[in-house]
Amino acid sequence: MIYLDNAASTPPAPEVLARMTHAAATFFANPSSAHRLGAAAARALDEARAQVAGLLRAEPSEIIFTSGGTEADALGLLGAAGLARGHHAVVTAIEHPAVLRSAERLIQHGWQVTFVVPQPSGAVSAEDVVAALRPETSVVAVMLVNNELGTIQPVAPIAKALRLTARPPHLHVDAVQAAGFVPLAVKTLGADSVAISGHKMAGPKGVGALWLRPGARLAPLWDGGRQERGLRSGTENVPGCVGLGCAAELCRTWWKDAPRVAGLRDRLQQQIFAALPSARPTVTGAPQAPHIASIQVPDLPAEPILHALEARDVFASAGSACASRTRGPSHVLKAVGIDDEAAILRFSLSRHTTEADVDHAAVALVQAVAEIERMARSS
Amino acid sequence: MNAVLCRYGELFLKAGNRPRFERRLVDNVRLALTGLSGFRIETPHGRILVRLSEGDVEEACARLERVFGLVSISPVAVVDSEITAIRQAAVACADAAVERDPAFRRSFRIEARRSEKRFPLTSYEISCDVGAAIEGALKIPVNLTDPALVVGIEVGATGSYVYADRREAPGGLPVESSGRALLLLSGGIDSPVAAWLSAKRGLALDALYFHSPPFVGEKSRDKVVTLARTLARWQALRTLTVVSFTDTQKRLREAGPAPLAVVLYRRMMMRVADLIADGTRAEALVTGENLGQVASQTIGNLATIEAAARRLVLRPLVTYDKRETIDLAKRIGTFDTSILPYEDCCSLFVPPHPSTAARLDDVERAEASLDMAAEAAAVAATAETLTL
Q1: Which helix (H) or strand (E) holds B3?
Q2: Gap between the Cα atoms of A43 and A157, Å rounded
Q3: How far apart are CA B333 and CA A339, in angstroms?
Q4: Is B258 in the A-facing interface, judged by CB distances under 8 Å?
Q5: Given a cut of 60, is residue A323 above it in pLDDT?
Q6: Bridge partners, A197 (sequence order)
Q7: CB contact under 8 A, B341 and A311
Q8: Measured at the alpha carbon of residue B376, what is the angle toward residues B372 and B380, in degrees to the nearest 5?
Q9: Could you give the CA distance from residue A247 to residue A239 in angstroms, rounded to a whole number?
Q10: Which of A245, A324, A305 is nearest to A8 (CA)?
Q11: What whole-number distance in Å separates Cα of residue B40 and Cα of residue A210?
């Protein structure tokens, strides 16, 4: 099996599974309970929080556990909006639906939202984001790595520009695709909140985290038992958090693999482009995360190609796994002006990917495309 | 409420065959209730009565609302055919109804019916007696023309039934009373509706799905299984057979000019379906085909396709507008599954401009390059059958 769909979900690391199994059996008590079983669960949670903070080079007290990347994004964006005075937000047009739909919800509540269209390179320009600011802008959202294209967005320059404004808006950063491969020192990033997700970094599904800059404030999305500093009520998912903590610990050193993974990605692309003259990168010109290659093959449907790849034991996605459930090009592809007659294929690597894997995948793609072309050909 | 009363209508018209239809309907009622513990079915005159424990009544009703042949059902209290008991049950029944929905307080009337003619009171006298009791006990006014609540009473020889809730059942004929057929099921909106309509007229169906791996993914196949299971809840399907169509489809694509491809595929599907139908003892094939819904669905093409089938081909949707089909699909419960966006076999293999008038001799010339019987047998040999 050659799994090149890590941007959709990563296989959990064996250590993660072992720690989670142990935690689920051992730390079953409610971390809020007064007895020593509750204390043990609370300690497990604290340890996990420290591990996540370690990955982000932050303090444990700044980490809020959530049910995943989507909730972390919603809490960062809508939570900041809940306390905002000005009712204008700026988000990039290529955000994950978790951010875009939250922004649309703000519109329903009477907000104005500016969607910043990216350059054809697949990255927004910091100048365009700054130009969209208004005096009443109170929330800005810019993702770090785009999930469909792998392009890195200029978060740090944007953060720097925001700090120079009279009343700096809250900057939320969706870093779900960045964890592990792009340095995530949140303080040098200059964001106010940063979202990550367990299952994109060899951790479990159903758990994520939001880092919140000390001094930044959020309104909780709902009320209840006031867990997570009152910002995220609900009994903590102890095994999930333990799994996320373990994954965070593991991927602290993954950046060392980034050049190697980027080399494999380049090798994959070179082989594909050499064998398939019609194929080309979906976008060029922006810095790329090491693990995502987005490739377009003109005049063919994506889904049959994916299944033909699957028949050769290669697993990838069309555009993004989320967008492939709806017909037509995704909002991201539209935003960068991609022709809707092309198959957009996303290969997302992991640090376990080998040269043999990408070589096999390239050959498989060439065969798959030939097969589909033969079927789709009209005589 | 410790029983469900099931009413059926059309079967009365089947004079000579009526006992056979009734037996089939009772069998289907029993089948629908499989898994509920300790129910008992009785067949008092012109009715089916299911006695079961009170906790199972709602679940039983939900299932019986999907049994073809039944016209309506009611959760009922079964009491002795004796006016005091009937009166008491009716007051309790009305009380429970207004407790459930206060809007019933607006007005009520009694609908009494007597199959036991030796009962001392006439239907009218029963209505007066029980009506007065409810009016007195619950202080609800009577309104004979536009009541909010109707309390029903059926007096029979062995017992009487009292109810305040009458629910529509789908009508039609008991499944299998009209014989067996094989459905060509796809992942689309139409073929599940065609199945439902056929089952409503008493056909027992098995389904056949043409899968095209690897070009079509497992999710498309899973979607068809979900559709089949939804139809099985209506007793509209018993089994699903999946065959792999890819290799034959490739050869058919190469065999003739591209515009003929759709007709060539469909004719092959008919041949394969006939082979599968031999095994299921089906007397007819059922498809979701429609007239003019897509470019290739012309009367000429349908005739050319049908010419490849040995059996009668039924197309219950042939005259339906898409809107009508969609409305039915929503009622059946297949619509939300049908619109899931996984590709089925059509999209990749369908040429950009399919022929709207495939002539039989052109089609047969294209088919001459292949051994059609052998191709059909090869596809049928890949069959895997799932009991639903």
Answers
A1: strand B3-8
A2: 38
A3: 36
A4: yes
A5: no
A6: A208
A7: no
A8: 170
A9: 12
A10: A324
A11: 58
Backbone angles phi, psi at A212, to 5 degrees: -125, 125
Chain A residues with beta carbon closer than 8 angstroms to that of B261: none
φ, ψ for residue B218, nearest 5 deg: -65, -30
* Longest pairwise C-alpha distance within chain A: 76
Q: Does domain B3-168 have CATH number 3.30.2130.30?
A: yes
Domain ranges of chain B: 3-168, 179-387
Determine whether A246 is an active site residue.
no
Residue A7: name the closest of A180, A252, A173, A210 by CA: A180
Rounded to whole angstroms, the Cα distance separating A238 from A221 reads 21
Two tokens at B238? 């018993």
Nearest CA in chain B to A369: B215
Paired with B114 in beta bridges are B155
What does the block give as tokens for B63? 């299932």
Is CATH 3.40.50.620 correct for B179-387? yes
Give strand pairing partners of B168.
B72
Distances (CA, A) of B325 to A213, A319, B289: 55, 33, 11
Given 3-state DSSP classes, what are the helix, strand and coil percentages for chain A, each rounded to the nearest 5? Answer: 45, 15, 40
Report residue B323 CA to chain centroid gap: 19
> Is the per-residue pLDDT at A319 higher than 90?
no
Per-residue confidence (pLDDT) for residue A324, from 0 to 100: 46
Q: Please spell the DSSP secondary structure of B157-224, one letter per residue.
A: SS-EEEES--EE---SB-TTTTEEEEEE--SSSHHHHHHHHHHHBTEEEEEEEEE-TTTS-HHHHHHH
Q: Which CATH architecture has domain A2-9+255-376?
A: Alpha-Beta Complex (3.90)
In the block, tokens 């065969």 appear at: A367
Quote the CA–CA distance of A377 and B258 in Å, as a whole number.
Answer: 9
B10 phi, psi to nearest 5 deg: -60, -25
DSSP A119: P
**Nearest neighbour of A304 by CB, restricted to B215, B257, B340:** B215
The encoded tokens of residue A345 equal: 């294929």
Contacts of A379 in chain B (CB under 8 A): 257-258
Q: Is A356 exposed, middle or buried (0-12, 13-18, 19+ CB in 10 A)?
A: exposed
Of B217, B250, B351, the CB nearest to A378: B351
In A, which residues are within 8 Å of B248 by CB distance?
none
Amino acid letter for position B4: V
**A336 residue type, one letter:** V
B217/A contact by beta carbon, under 8 A = yes
Q: Do A307 and B253 touch (CB under 8 A)?
A: no
Domain residue extents for chain A:
2-9+255-376, 14-251
Average pLDDT, chain A: 93
3-state secondary structure of A197: strand
Residues A99 and A78: their CA atoms lie apart, in Å, by 9
Measure the CA–CA gap between B306 and B224, rounded to whole angstroms.
24
Q: What is the pLDDT along chain B (388 residues), one digit of tens a residue?
A: 789 999 998 665 666 778 889 999 999 999 999 999 889 999 987 899 999 998 999 999 999 999 999 999 999 999 999 999 999 999 999 999 999 999 999 999 999 999 888 899 999 999 999 999 999 999 999 999 999 999 999 998 889 999 999 999 999 999 999 999 999 999 899 999 999 999 999 999 999 999 988 888 888 899 999 999 999 999 999 999 999 999 999 899 888 888 898 899 999 999 999 999 999 999 999 999 999 888 788 999 999 999 999 999 999 999 999 999 999 999 999 999 988 876 654 566 777 778 888 888 899 999 999 999 999 999 999 999 999 8
3-state secondary structure of A24: helix
- The CATH class, in words, for A14-251 is alpha beta
Residue A372 to residue B257, Cβ atoms within 8 A? no
d(CA B37, CA B40): 9
CA pair distance B291, A376, nearest whole angstrom: 26
